[in-house]
Automatic annotation (TrEMBL):
Organism: Amycolatopsis iheyensis
Protein name: SDR family oxidoreductase
InterPro entries recorded: NAD(P)-bd_dom_sf (IPR036291), Sc_DH/Rdtase_CS (IPR020904), SDR_fam (IPR002347)
Similarity section: Belongs to the short-chain dehydrogenases/reductases (SDR) family.
One family name in Pfam for this protein: adh_short
GO molecular function: oxidoreductase activity, acting on the CH-OH group of donors, NAD or NADP as acceptor
Length: 239
């Protein structure tokens, strides 16, 4: 059994990952802003025979993320996996000048990731091991119109995670998972009409979030000497 911390666990990939990993016998520590959803998810996990903890978490608050990790160590003596999943995607053209939305993506998608690394890395180094999983995007591999800032944050997330892999002690494993189009609430935050309509067409074919949970399960389930560094998962129809 691994102690697995998951940010953005209230919906989408985070929710699906919590369900899958709990079903596989791991203890999941759930973090997100919507505590009511986390409580319902934890009940579902407990009712199915699994175990879970709930923590209200805003990844843009460095102190909250540090306490998220520290509390898990106090309760369970260690932490084995940190899944940095929290993210936002309010797409828009740059000439729409939705600067507040750009800032929000930077805060959650980049600073939130850095806060996770800062919170978890000291524990992993003290333990002599651990596994950091970043949920990036196929937007970390290509840029499309309306997604310049979002893709920029995901390129950054991929680069930061690769830097962590290169710098980390050999006992620390590091994985970047880049999903393609997945069923989620991410598109609900798009306010620009043109971007919203383009995303409706783009999301005509999607993967269920459990597909990505399966990739995470595969990566963390490998023997200690095996480090799955990068996984890209997209629908067969996505190009």
């Amino acid at each position: 059994m691994k102690i697995v911390l998951i940010t953005g666990a209230s919906s989408g990939i985070g929710h699906a990952t919590a369900l899958r990993l709990a079903h596989e016998g791991h203890h999941v520590v759930l973090g997100a802003r919507r505590e009511d959803r986390l409580t319902a998810l934890a009940k579902e996990i407990h009712d199915a025979g699994g175990t879970a903890d709930v923590h209200r978490l805003d990844v843009t608050d460095r102190a909250e993320v540090a306490e998220f990790a520290d509390a898990a160590v106090r309760a369970h003596g260690r932490l084995d996996v940190f899944v940095a999943n929290a993210g936002v995607m309010p797409l828009s053209r740059l000439d729409s000048l939705l600067v507040d939305e750009w800032d929000r993506m930077l805060d959650v998608n980049v600073r939130g990731l850095l806060h996770g690394i800062a919170a978890v890395l000291p524990h992993f180094r003290r333990q002599g091991g651990g596994h950091f999983v970043t949920i990036a995007s196929t937007g970390a591999h290509e840029v499309v119109p309306t997604a310049a800032v979002y893709c920029g944050t995901k390129y950054a997330a991929r680069a930061i995670t690769e830097g962590l892999r290169l710098e980390a002690d050999p006992g620390i494993r590091v994985t970047t998972v880049s999903p393609g189009v997945v069923e989620s609430e991410l598109a609900d935050t798009i306010t620009e009409p043109g971007a919203r309509e383009a995303m409706r067409t783009y999301r005509a074919v999607t993967l269920p979030p459990d597909t990505i949970a399966g990739a995470i399960s595969y990566a963390i389930g490998q023997p200690a000497g095996v480090d799955v560094n990068e996984v890209v998962v997209r629908p067969t129809a996505q190009r």
